[in-house]
Specification:
It comes from Corynebacterium mustelae. By secondary structure, the protein is α+β, with helices and mostly antiparallel strands. It has eight helices and four strands. Strands 3-2-1-4 form a four-stranded mixed β-sheet.
Length: 186
């Protein structure tokens, strides 16, 4: 049973879906769609914000040159702060979806959290983010989205990899998910 009101979760989902559609559309318009290989959303353990980031093959190749040790390449490939573009690097109207609409819904959701229900609160928010993310992806041509790996991460958290794997399973094909799970294998 959710601890966050259904109305607030619905608002959050609408804003997340809108944010993903608009930012992914922007990234695909500004880059050759075949260049975009990763798009991620990220939050923190407290679910106090959501950001986005996308990576391109050409950017990844440039970053690999900065990190000549091949053991660092998976980090550069999958760690969203190393991605090509994201929150704060796009036109203001795109960031406003995250900084205003999504943020307002998250601020309202914070009123439902307390020490006793925190794990359920996190689950409510994470599941809402993933569900809205999936709905947004389905608004694009499957040929385009099949080339992109989608996931949700948690900033500076020991639980980041768990949420990344969980969300990748929900947002991608079984084949893409299996490959994603091996992203840090050398």
């Amino acid at each position: 049973m959710s601890v966050v009101s259904e109305e607030i979760l619905r608002k959050l989902q609408e804003q997340i879906s809108s944010g993903v559609v608009e930012t992914l559309r922007f990234v695909l318009h500004e880059n050759n769609p075949g260049e975009v290989f990763t798009y991620a959303l990220y939050t923190d353990d407290y679910c106090s914000y959501v950001g986005w980031a996308a990576n391109t093959l050409s950017h990844f190749e440039k970053k690999k040159a900065e990190f000549p040790d091949s053991r660092d390449h998976a980090f550069v490939q999958w760690y969203y702060p190393e991605f090509f573009i994201g929150t704060g690097e796009a036109p203001a109207e795109l960031d406003n979806i995250f900084n205003e609409g999504i943020q307002k819904a998250l601020d309202e959701a914070q009123g439902f959290v307390n020490e006793d229900n925190f794990p359920q609160f996190q689950s409510d928010i994470y599941d809402s983010i993933i569900g809205a993310f999936g709905a947004a992806i389905h608004q694009f041509d499957q040929e385009v989205t099949d080339a992109i790996t989608f996931f949700v991460s948690i900033a500076d958290s020991d639980d980041a990899e768990n949420l990344e794997n969980y969300s990748a399973e929900k947002l991608n094909s079984a084949e893409k998910y299996a490959a994603f799970q091996k992203r840090y294998d050398n």
